[in-house]
UniProtKB/TrEMBL annotation:
Keyword Phosphoprotein attached: no
This protein's name: Secreted protein
Gene3D superfamilies attached to this UniProt entry: Galactose-binding domain-like
Superkingdom of this protein's organism: Eukaryota
SUPFAM superfamilies in the cross-refs: Galactose-binding domain-like
Key words of the record: Signal
InterPro entries: Galactose-bd-like_sf, Ulvan_degrading_GH
Species this protein is from: Fusarium oxysporum (Fusarium vascular wilt)
UniProt signal peptide: 1-18
Amino acid sequence: MFLSWWYNFALLATTVIARKDSTNLPPDFDSPSAVYRPKFRYWLPDAAVDHELLVHDISDIRNVGAGGLEFVPYYNYGFGTGDISNWDVYAFGKPAFKNAFQAALEACKSNNLVMDFALGASQGQGVPVEPLTPGLAVQLVYGRISVKGGEQFQGKLPEPMIDWRQNIGFMQTQEVFGESRLVAKHSDNGDSLIALDEASMVDLSEKVVEGQLKWRAPPDHDKYVIFALYERFTNQRSCVGIPTDVIANGSWVTDHYSAAGTKLVTKFWEENLLDTEIRDLLQSIGQHYSMEIQASLYWTPDFVERFTVNRGYNPVKYLPLMFHQSNSFHGYEAPYNTTFYLEGEGYGDQGKYLQDYRLTLTEGYSEYLEALESWAQSLGVSHSSQVAYNQPVDLSATVPLVSGPELESLGFVNVDQMLQFVGPAHLGDRNVISTEVGAVASGAYSLTLPSLIRLFHDAFASGVNMMLIHGTPYSGDQINSTWPGYTPFQYRFTDPWGPRQPAWNHIAENLNYTGRNQFILQSGIAKRELAFYLCKDPWRISTAQDGGYLRQSGLTYEYLGPANLNDERAIVSDGVLGSSGPGYRALILDHQPCISAEAAEKLVKFANDGLPIVIIGDLPNSTIGTSGQETVLKRMADLKSVAYSNVKFITHSNSLTRALDELAVKSRVSVRSSVPSSAAKKLYTLWRSDESIDYVFFHNSGASATYNISMEAKKNRVPYKLNAWTGAQEPIAVYGRSPTGVSMQLTLQSNQTAIIALVAGAALDHVISHSDNVVRVSYGSENKFDILLDDTRAASLVLSNGHERNIPATTKDTKVLVYEKDLGPWDLTIESWVPSSNFSVFRSAKEMLHLGPQATLLPWSEIPEIQNVSGVGIYTSKFSVPISSWLAKGQVAVFIHFGPVLNTLRAWVNGKQLPPMDIFDAGLDISDYIKPGPNIIRVETSSTLFNAVKARSHVIKTNGVGPLDPNMYNSASWQPQGLVGPVRIKSLRKVVI
């Protein structure tokens, strides 16, 4: 275990000659430009902010290595602060907001940052406008009354039931005003058992005169239900206000299912915010948009007309069926206590009329997105959206419509779920895919940087390549707020990053690391071996499979939906699907029940064009919606009856890799073996291909492991290791080559990543094998090899030119070359971050706590006198090495390892700061920092602010309100922080040949 670290770190060592060996290496990897760097979501409390502080906040974001921010007019999530009496001046859209917005744009421009921005207050769901204005969000509601069979109903239509079950707490509830427009009137037989007889459903709209109905129920059923369906505005605010004028009165959610909603948004911006100066600023740096809305039944005024034209029948008599849990926000619950379904069909969400509703809603949502996309392009900016998030529309169909598709780690909780988002984006030529990342419901100030980076790694493994960090708040004063500062979401979600956090001064290494990874993961084109066809209706975020059995074979995959198969870019060429894009080498259908008629046609075409296809279980046998069933059955029969050599049918996924082998489907990366043997199931790989470079990203999500890997490579490709923590690019000196690729050994600690670049250029002589006591081989000066060994025995190497080189064992007087020692004792001083004497002052006071010598390194949570402390730990120790003379001769190298990093770590040896370290394997070569005699080492570790906040959770407030869930602090344990070690130095023999 210990030796695996030394070997791995050898692969990550820096070298100054790397770039001289190939002009094709990415020149900006060391210091990527802002567009590749992670961004922060910036929460502006309202427009009553100090512009100097706003500009200072933006400079702080630049200074720690971020590439930009997403400017969110937060307005307390639209609920308002404790006092909104001044919002006649400071509401979203007022001149004061415009001035703050312009100040932010100018600050981003002067700091060379990218600035995204939400199109409205809170999450951007709406804009200020007169209530009841066309283009605002509408919904469908109903009233109902029962009539006995054979009886006559005569009178006023049932009143709409507008008191439905809304989501409360995190979204504004609807306000009750305005009229309800009658959409339809029809009857069904039904009762409290909620089953309806389809044959008895009658549209009575033509019998309604001035709101009155006269109708006799047929005698063939005991009971009928008369429904009156009404369209009405949702009257849902996205932000509260005061009724002094239209803009001060807050923002209202717009229609997200037609271009009419887009027109309201664009009209407001063009009339109130987009003067010439701001337009010019946007053209150089702006983008972004997101949404969050609810309705009894999502609707748009032309829904019936669109439905009738596109589905081929009038939906009116089926509308009561649509008030179903599957059509609600996030699929939480049905809007009314009674849910109706067709007798014989069951309560499930796969009813054909429900599917037709969602198909039509998706078409309206697509129109809305396309209108926003066109408007953004007219401004010279790109449009980003958390596409289809929480809405009953087809995510896979709509992701490609947006130039900047974005997901959220709070909703997409694992790699497989993210792959369902990423696949449609890749096939749709969307290169930059972002995630709002870091919102964890564990209490504000609790998220450690290793935990945040682990979230990044999962996103990277899926192909998401832009991190939008949640978030950083305005740093200035806020009414009725206390230390440690303005904290959004009532302290529930992580995390308010910024100078208030002890880790802020250490975060640059992490953001530089992230930016370098994103630079690589946005270079070239993402490639996958497998596309899994996935039919979800309704579309919900859920895990489809683990995929470990595929990763064990080096196979990568993502998902495509029915609309993606029908995409014009879904073309098979030379047996590859989307060859100019993700380049899928096979299409897999794993027990998928449904498919659209268009996708069924395309599937047969793929088979005819030679794409390898594997069907696990039965073929889809059901269309989506009411039309196309005949086509689906015919095309699926064609697929099964024709003896395609490129189509295989298997019964279980455990036979998939064998079927792919039989179809000659090969992975770009293969794992020939691993130690432990099952480790490859946790190894994620991602391939990016450019004209002169192929990049391979590795992420080990399991325990520490060593892998023997091989990668496809043209004969003129040379492997390099790119170190995202330091920016170094080093030619790999130990690898094998075959006619089709290169092979090597790779060791990764848990949660560690690596980047290998296969670069066009002339190959140097390299080592193809060596004895097991060789720890590292790297290129030194003058075309020589620098070799490190972990013992004094003889060693041997075989070179690519056929020569064998032998290294003799050490003599008696050089046995001391191999040396190992744990450092200590450690003198500990803590800079404790606490409130000042005035609790309303946001900036922390710093108190120095001198704890003296520590014989054993323990987390602060296990030291009683500092378990409730947050801040910066300063550890110092002295050490000497008995090998300094050999070090001076270049015959030994000394490495140090610091043990687990709980949050951040920086170190100095003899006053010189060490380079950034991989927080998942914190060690490096310190040979150049050691001197003869005593050496002094200093280590700084920063903590989160959680322990200090937990100790004061009963008195902290934002806008007069304390933590929404005090148990997040009261019931939580003290966080372990500090240096826990062991801190160990180890020497290795060094030989140059």
